[in-house]
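=== RUN LOG ===
request id: a7f3
mode: sequence -> structure
chains: 1
length: 143
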Amino acid sequence: MKWNLRMVAAQRDLWRPTELLEAFKTVGFTPSLSKVAAMWSGTPVTVRLDDLDKICAVPNCTVGDLLQAEPLEDAAGESEELPKAPTGARPADARSAGQPSHTAAELTDGCEISSGSVPGLPGLGSARPNRVPGVYGGAEESS
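=== RESULT ===
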C-alpha cells in the first residue's frame, strides 16, 4: 500500500507536519509531533481505525485518497499481481441462496460410512478415513 498523506495534505495547502498537527487538534486527534512527522515522511506500520477517520476528517478526504494499492513484490524484487477472485457463486452466496456449498459426496470423499449411529444424531452413520494397506504400519487396522 502506498501512503499518500503528504500529497493529500499538500492539496489542502498543508505543507509541514506542524501545520498538520494543528489541523488534527481541531478534530480531536492529538498525536505527538514525532508521530505526525513519521506519518508525514513515510508509511505508518499501523493506524487505528478511529485515528484514520480523524486523519481523513482534516483534509476532507477518503481512506481511498490516503491509501493506494500497489502490486506485491516477491523475494526477488519483481512485481507480482494480486490473484483475481474466482468468478461465479462463492460458497457463502450458495448458502444464502438456500443451496448447499458442498455435496455430500464431496464432504465424504475418501471416507467409509458405517451403519452405526452418531451420538445425538440418530440414524446417521459415522465417517472414518479409508484404510490403505501399507500406509498404517504395513497392516490394515481392524474396525
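=== NOTES ===
The first helix runs from residue 5 to 11.
Residues 56 and 62 are 6 Å apart (CA to CA).
=== END ===
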